[in-house]
Amino acid sequence: MENENVSKIKDAILRNNELFDALAELYKVFGDGTRVRILCALTQSEMNVSEISAFLDITQSAVSHQLRVLKTSSLVKSRRKGKTMIYSLADEHVRAIIDCGMEHIAE
User: Fold this and answer.
1) What are phi and psi of 49, to 5 degrees?
2) How many domains does the chain have?
3) Domain range for residue 18?
4) Whether 9 and 48 share a structural domain
5) What is the pLDDT of residues 28-79, one digit of tens each?
6) Are 26 and 58 found together in one domain?
7) What gap in Å lies between CA 27 and CA 31, rounded to an integer?
8) Are residues 25 and 49 in the same domain?
9) Same domain for 47 and 9?
10) Local confidence band at 2 (pLDDT 50, 70, 90 cut-offs)
11) 59 and 99, same domain (yes or no)
12) What are residue 25's phi and psi, to 5 degrees?
């Protein structure tokens, strides 16, 4: 027989299953070092693909692929400046996730 505390926890988790799955998917995106480096670069300044490519010393094609994943996950946004797409963090939550992770690792 379950005690009351276990029952409350189970109810809370079951109510939030979809949220937990979405959170797990979000953290999977952070599981790739290239994507994390792109996000860290974008904490400093918005950049275009060629700037990110030069900064990370990887091909523009590889950068574009990773940016597509980051955009799909709503971690990065883009805007057009002439013929160039400029990328930046989607919002301050992304910066907070990165900052919190870095702080945790540094302890």
Assistant:
1) -60, -45
2) 2
3) 1-30
4) no
5) 999 999 999 999 999 999 999 999 999 999 999 999 999 999 999 999 999 9
6) no
7) 7
8) no
9) no
10) low
11) yes
12) -65, -40
In this structure, the chain runs to a length of: 107
- 3 or 63, higher pLDDT: 63
What does the alpha-carbon distance between residue 87 and residue 42 come to, in Å, rounded to a whole number? 8
Residue 78 host element (H or E): strand 76-81
φ, ψ for residue 74 (rounded to 5)?
Answer: 60, 30
Total-model pTM: 0.85
Q: Are residues 39 and 18 in the same domain?
A: no
Mean pLDDT, range 22-29, rounded to an integer: 94
CB-CB contact of 90 with 75 (8 Å): yes
Same domain, 24 and 75: no
Q: Note the helical H segments in the chain.
A: 4-15, 17-29, 33-44, 49-56, 60-72, 92-106
Whether residues 42 and 60 fall in one domain? yes
pLDDT at 3 over 90: no
